Amino acid sequence: MFPLLRKILEKRGLKDITELDASEKETFDKWQKILTEEEISVENIKEFCEIQKKSIEAQYTNPDNTDKKDIYLKAALSIYTGIINLIGSKKVAREHLVKYLEQLLK
């Protein structure tokens, strides 16, 4: 448990998080996650972009979309797809190079 959160519990006269109600526990867990999570990684960014892409794709099929919204969704989809492709391109390039070098060794 993060030391600052332990102090908060102590200040409230609580010995353990099990003494919190459901709402308080949820808030406590969010705080704990924020305080203990590492810096944003490339994988975190990729996951975020994948989620945004799926959300856009779900909205894109709505027949009530205006032309302006369709243009926005197309642009956003293009941006997120581009970021995902950029992140994946290094991995793909590395895999191709490894295969090529392995074939040179045969």
Query: Spans of 5+ residues with little confidence (pLDDT < 50)?
Result: none
Portion of residues in beta strands equals under 5%
Number of strands: 0
Helical segment count: 4
Span between termini: 53 Å
Q: Tell me the major beta sheet.
A: none
Mean pLDDT: 89
Oligomer: single chain
Tally of domains: 2
Could you estimate the helical fraction of the residues in percent?
over 70%
Classification by helices and strands: mainly alpha
Shape: flat
Task: Spell out the helices and strands N to C.
Answer: HHHH
User: Using only CA atoms, what is the Rg?
Assistant: 23 Å
Provide an overview of this structure.
This protein is an all-alpha fold and 106 residues long. Helix content is 77%, strand content 0%. Helix 3 (42-60) packs across helix 4 (67-105). The chain is flat, with a radius of gyration of 23 Å.
Kindly list the characteristics that best describe this protein.
single chain; 106 residues; mainly alpha; 2 domains; 4 helices; 77% helix; 0% strand; flat
Task: Give a nutshell description of this structure.
With 106 residues, this protein is mainly α.
Give the secondary structure arrangement, pairings included.
Blueprint: H1 3-11, H2 22-36, H3 42-60, H4 67-105
Helix pairs in contact: 3-4
